[in-house]
């Protein structure tokens, strides 16, 4: 199959560190190549792929301080893809709604995976304007605010099977992994760890937008005994960090559309204790790969129960449900459906 | 003529206070209606116009704190305009490059006025991708970074003839009007005024993005004797403010594509002393409506000369060159050229 993947230019594919969307696009792209498909990746020129890279700008925009107006480049990219549409059997966009208008006016089947939250007021007019554009959600929960859009599949994210594996370790602390921002609630994680009488290690990025929040609200909490802040980590340190933990705390306070950190934990056999928001109930199997809790009190109770879970069973569930291979196969099934649906159908004899 | 004006949703048309692009769109729209044309204005619902308002979102986005992703609404707006394109003779966009791809694929003539600077690196791939999309510059200087684009006209902005008129006053201070930001160089204006031994009144907005710059760099300078900061002002106070000044100081340090403040001064008969950057040499007539200077020293010299200029001659030049009526007529000439150019031409007999 001739497949175009069209990525944001914000981060390289894959990104050097944090950057959920571009990491998922990379994993999907590499699996599709591995499965024998002819894949073109439209992305920043510092991307690294076994697919055919179509560089749309030399450097990822987060690193390129000279670009003030990223959308200029994204709009030019969409035009470039449009002009080459006939070279592909399917085009897979990861650019929110930007390609909807233009791609609705050409013949190659296309689909868009929405990677973000959809509960903002401005989303309603967009999806009402484009009721027939085919969309993929990354969880069923993500769809809730826009139930009437043309959802053609939910495809949960997946990780390369061997990216993260359980490492030998004696679990001794609770873990928080991700980004420091108000909706990720690292403050709740600190309180839960304190109430459990366990140390907490925090591996997290602080975006510039969250610097004030970090300095004013979170930094004082890091002084508490047993709390350790280790900054942003890559995959190498991540598997050690996750394997050495008793549980991953995910006390989120927003409708997270997926939550890669939960499947990263599972890949290392680590139980997840997560608040019941957004996609959590689709990802965590309560009592198997972790516990779904409603508040800090029930989180404390759940931490006391995680020793009863089998870390090897958690890894097995990861392999069954959340590998990049499974994700790629789900997308291939969808691509075939869309391609078949777009073919001119043989006319029935009219009566 | 059936004309569509398509405005950004950022500010109402016209905006309550600052907001250059939307003010110009408003003046153009109202003049076109006045001249008897059938005008539809695609804009935020809190816009006020004698044209047919097509509200694309209830409130301007700067005031609507609930919208985090303004482009969602702009992309939906462009799709709505596309679907109605056949209802218009000409469509005039004020949305940068966003409509280029889509509108290139329909039959109604369209044109885009570029309101911003074009010297950023990301502009090259955009305009290289769309070499035949018709563009209007708001000064010849604005075109310089992208000389190969399809420029079909330069149309200087204009003000409604009676919006600002000279008021009786005995000029007694130098004036700075606009926005506090590093490239507007209010610090240079303060030094020039001090070297001239004249008071400086500063009527300016401070954007949130410039709050640190204002507090750290500019606020201490406002303590100096003779410097008065009066904040943001509307048109009523503006004509009094400008009429009472000896000269307007425009010590800009960036390639300003137009600079409305200069023609606002001229409308009040106020001489302009402006640095030779961007559009300045097209707007200020050296020795007639003001002086074009190269640095602070030559600005000080020019201030000493402004008494030799005739304030009524400045007002006359404003009426000849920078009214909204003149702007509307320039645009109508252009619309007619584009409509005639788009008509299928009668074929010549072939030899």
Q: Descriptors for this entry?
A:
homodimer; 351 residues; alpha/beta; Rossmann fold; 2 domains; seven-stranded parallel β-sheet; 13 strands
Give the topology, please:
2 copies of one chain form a homodimer.
Chain A: E1 2-6, H1 20-34, E2 38-43, E3 52-55, H2 70-83, E4 90-93, H3 100-103, E5 110-113, H4 123-129, E6 135-137, H5 140-143, E7 151-154, E8 173-179, H6 186-196, E9 200-205, H7 211-218, E10 227-229, H8 235-243, E11 245-250, H9 260-267, E12 272-275, H10 280-283, E13 290-293, H11 296-305, H12 311-321, H13 324-342
Parallel strand pairs in A: 1-2, 1-4, 2-3, 4-5, 5-6, 6-7, 8-9, 8-11, 9-10, 11-12, 12-13
Largest sheet of chain A: 7 strands, parallel
Going by CATH, the homologous superfamily of the largest domain in chain A would be Glycogen Phosphorylase B
Number of strands of chain A: 13
Categorize the overall geometry of chain A: globular
Rg result of chain A: 21 Å
Residue-averaged pLDDT of chain A, rounded? 94
Largest interface: A-B, 31 and 32 residues
Please indicate the count of domains of chain A: 2
User: Hey, roughly how much beta strand do the residues of chain A contain?
Assistant: 15-25%
């Amino acid at each position: 199959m001739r497949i175009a993947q069209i990525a944001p230019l914000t981060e390289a594919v894959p990104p050097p560190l944090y950057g959920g969307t571009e990491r998922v696009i990379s994993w999907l792209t590499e699996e599709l190549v591995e499965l024998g498909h002819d894949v073109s990746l439209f992305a920043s020129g510092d991307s690294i792929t076994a697919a055919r890279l179509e560089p749309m700008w030399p450097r990822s925009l987060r690193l390129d301080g000279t670009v003030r107006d990223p959308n200029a480049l994204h709009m030019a990219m969409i035009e470039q893809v449009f002009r080459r549409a006939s070279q592909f059997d399917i085009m897979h966009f990861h650019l929110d709604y930007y390609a909807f208008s233009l791609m609705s006016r050409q013949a190659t089947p296309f689909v868009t995976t929405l990677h973000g939250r959809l509960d903002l007021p401005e989303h309603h007019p967009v999806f009402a304007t484009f009721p027939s554009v085919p969309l993929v959600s990354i969880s069923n929960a993500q769809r809730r605010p826009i139930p009437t859009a043309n959802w053609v599949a939910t495809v949960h994210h997946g990780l390369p099977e061997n990216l993260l594996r359980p490492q030998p370790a004696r679990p001794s602390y609770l873990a928080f992994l991700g980004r420091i921002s108000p909706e990720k609630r690292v403050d709740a994680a600190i309180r839960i760890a304190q109430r459990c009488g366990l140390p907490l290690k925090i591996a997290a990025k602080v975006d510039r937008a969250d610097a004030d929040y970090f300095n004013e609200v979170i930094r004082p909490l890091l002084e508490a005994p047993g709390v350790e802040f280790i900054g942003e980590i890559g995959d190498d340190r991540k598997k050690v960090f996750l394997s050495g933990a008793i549980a991953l705390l995910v006390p989120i306070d927003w409708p997270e559309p997926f939550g890669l950190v939960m499947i990263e934990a599972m890949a290392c056999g680590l139980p997840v204790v997560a608040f019941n928001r957004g996609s959590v109930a689709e990802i965590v199997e309560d009592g198997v790969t972790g516990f779904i809790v409603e508040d800090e009190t029930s989180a404390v109770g759940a931490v006391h129960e995680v020793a009863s879970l089998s870390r090897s069973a958690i890894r097995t569930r990861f392999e069954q449900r959340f590998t990049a291979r499974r994700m790629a196969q789900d997308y291939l099934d969808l691509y075939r459906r869309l391609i078949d649906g777009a073919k001119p159908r043989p006319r029935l004899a009219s009566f």
